[in-house]
Amino acid sequence: MQNQLTTYLSAGYPGLAVVSSEEARAESEIASVCTSLNRRLHAWSSSEGLADTKEGHVTACPDPLDALQLLDGMFAADSPRHVVLFRDLQLHMDQSDPMLVRRIKDILRIAKTNGHSIILLGCRLKLPPELEHEITHVDFSLPDNNQLGVVLDGILKSAKLKAPHEAIREAALQSALGLTTTEAENAFALSIIETKGIDHKIVAREKARTLKRSGLVEVVEASTGLGDIGGLDHLKEWLLRRGGAFSAFAKAYGLPAPKGLLIVGIPGTGKSLTAKATAGAFGLPLLRLDMGRVFGGIVGQSESNLRSVIQTAEAIAPCVLWIDEIEKGFSGSQSSGSTDGGTSSRVFGSFLSWMQEKEKPVFVVATANDVSKLPPEFLRKGRFDELFFVDLPDVQERTQIWDILIKRHGRKAKDFDTVALSRACEQFTGAEIEAVFIDALHEGFADGREPKAKDILTAITNTVPLAQLMDGQIAALRHWAKGRAREAAGRATPAPRNSRRIAEAN
To answer: Strand 260-265 and strand 217-220: pairing?
Structure first.
């Protein structure tokens, strides 16, 4: 932020805004910039009034209108250049006070003429239309490794502990990325209390809890690998060949970080599982975004939520950002103007712009069941590196799925004829196959024995697969995917009839 703020103040911008919940860190950086530019910094709050941060002189004025009145004399043409920081002015602007808006416009005009500036600082910003073009937003990122390192060193010093090994230190700082300095300080302190040292697992656990409380993104433990997926050979091969693209060697090679992957297919065919396995294959943290929670009822809240999600993902980068059933979040963007005042359209446009222009290594894995609800511009090349279609598993893939599921539930695949089982459950998805085996486990448990093939076959007989219930929708999805998306599975292509005769003759 410091470089951007220095540029704006040097250029004479009269009104700036910094949105952050880290008030202390933001004020520290603003003070540093004012010192370097030889600007006198004042700060206002409704509890303290207007204070000269250098001399400590305070003028009691809990009403922002009174504070703005004081600036008339302070912003004179012949006075030293001043920067006045207003804390939580948004709370007063929420009252829709026309006098406050008018006074802000008046003082901004005086500040512009005489080379002064005001800065609005708070955890949110929603300007009235009269001020939208008067105040410039200054980006304030979450703390990076160096800033978190200062926090960690301070905690260790106060606890009178020696600095940990460099590898332990780096792991702890990496686990804290995405937290504010206050949240990171709490996580480091908790680690010291629980282990008498720094444990990156505790820091990561606290980060997961913190992000989950926000309701927008959550950290998902990526304990799944590509070996836990049955079939989808083309998709797995594609991921394996891009696993090293986030390394320093790839960057030195001149290789840009992959943008992301869109997986379209039938429900229950392993799309979400693939998203989790991607993070495991890349060795990166996995964030799950609930796109439905991005949209809020307060004006401007949806856009602010998306900015918060992007800021968090970029702070944690390199990482994998998983958006499940993305069509549910963006399906209404085309009719947004008549349904929600254009909010969905603006959020969708902001997300597309970020996908196209993002520089931080955030690999987006989006899954969709109904691709017809996605706007066409979302599918354009350049948003994602590749678009894969996941169809129903064939007999070989179903056999692999049976082997994996039986092992996952603590049994040996050799105790079952998985080839026969895979033939018996034609048109079943992976999720349906797992449900069938769990049903067989219940039967065996109820009778005090191990599940038998008869239990599984009975469960298969009693199950109506989704492929029969949604045959029309699946046919339409297959028709759409043909020529538009790559097949995720490596299905064998039958040889032409003439070629087969030649082979048999030889």
So the answer is: unpaired
What are the residue ranges spanned by the domains of the chain? 2-138, 145-214, 226-390, 395-468
- Fold for the domain defined by 2-138: Rossmann fold (3.40.50)
**Residue 340 confidence class, pLDDT cut points 50, 70, 90:** low
For residue 422, the model assigns a pLDDT of: 93
Q: How far is CA 375 from CA 6, 249, 367, 434, in A?
A: 40, 37, 14, 33
Q: How many H helices and E strands in the chain?
A: 24, 14
Q: What is the pLDDT of residue 335?
A: 52
Q: What is the pTM of this model?
A: 0.76
Q: 42: helix, coil or strand?
A: strand
How many whole angstroms separate alpha carbon 249 and alpha carbon 395? 40
Least reliable range by pLDDT among 30-34, 59-63, 130-134, 343-347: 343-347
Domain with residues 395-468, CATH architecture: Orthogonal Bundle (1.10)
* Interval 137-170: pLDDT, tens: 998 888 988 999 999 999 999 988 888 889 899 9
The Cα–Cα gap between 486 and 237 comes to: 12
CATH among 2.40.30.10, 3.40.50.300, 3.30.70.3270, 3.90.1150.10 for 226-390: 3.40.50.300
**SS3 at position 269:** coil
Phi, psi of 91 (to 5 degrees): -60, -35
